[in-house]
Amino acid sequence: MKENSLQQFVKLVPFLGSMLGPDYEIVLHDLAADPPSVIAIANQHVSGRNIGAPLTNHAMQLIADKAYKKQDWDLNYRGQAENGKVLRCSTLFIKDDDGELVGLLCINFDDSRYRDLSERIFALCHPDEYATQNISINAAPFKSAAEDNEQESFYNSISSAIDDALIAVMNSSQVPAERLTQDEKVKILQLLEERGIFMLKGVIPIVAQKLASSPASIYRYLNKIKLEGRPRSS
Questions:
Q1: How far is CA 105 from CA 40, 149, 161, in A?
Q2: Rounded-to-integer distance, Cα 29 and Cα 101, Å
Q3: What are the percentages of helix, strand and coil residues in the chain, rounded to 5?
């Protein structure tokens, strides 16, 4: 795929946004950017993001897992924007001629207007008490990324993405960062690497501060993980 081939998808973003309507957010990520980020977006009110926003936790996980090697898209997974909206999301993997991933085209659907309408109709045909208790019977409670890393979270900044990933992986540790052993820190770094967090620019100093370590130590631990080729965590 030629160097500027994402330009054809840049034009596709506003087209799809206008055609599908205001409840559909269309997002194009350029993975060659440093760091990978949004380069085109339509109907950004859906998630509240803008051009330059970083990858989501789900996108980083897909890239880290090399899911694009086995499939061309990932359909109908659940996401949550920073503004609290729950979205139905799908991602198209954009690959070059060698099959390497160069971009992501994402469509995120906000069905809140339709759910509100269906709940109003539901309430019309049932007693108030029954409607109150059962109106959201088909909507499972949303879990945060810290509780379920298979659900997608949208970020306006890299710092938000880093904080979310750290909260998720450090929930397994019940001791303060300054009391973590080297092996415990290496385990946390391994989990962060599996989530693809280290593809974000400027992440090392922030992670070092959170783990009460020096950036040099973090680099050393990451090299150790790479050299040992540790198996992925279960």
A1: 10, 21, 19
A2: 11
A3: 45, 20, 40
The residue with tokens 């898209």 is 73
**Would you write out the chain's pLDDT as a tens digit for each of its 234 residues?**
444 579 889 999 999 999 999 999 999 999 998 889 999 999 999 999 999 999 998 999 999 999 999 999 999 999 988 778 889 999 999 999 899 999 999 999 999 888 778 777 877 777 766 666 665 544 444 444 444 445 677 777 777 777 777 777 766 555 667 778 888 888 888 888 888 888 777 788 888 888 888 989 898 889 888 887 654 444
Residue 29, classed as helix, strand or coil, is strand
d(CA 3, CA 95): 12
Tokens of 99: 């099959």
Query: Which is nearest to 111 in space by CA: 85, 136, 140?
Result: 85
Structure tokens at 127: 């007693």
Length of the chain, in residues: 234
Return the closest-CA partner of residue 29 out of 94, 109, 90, 76: 94
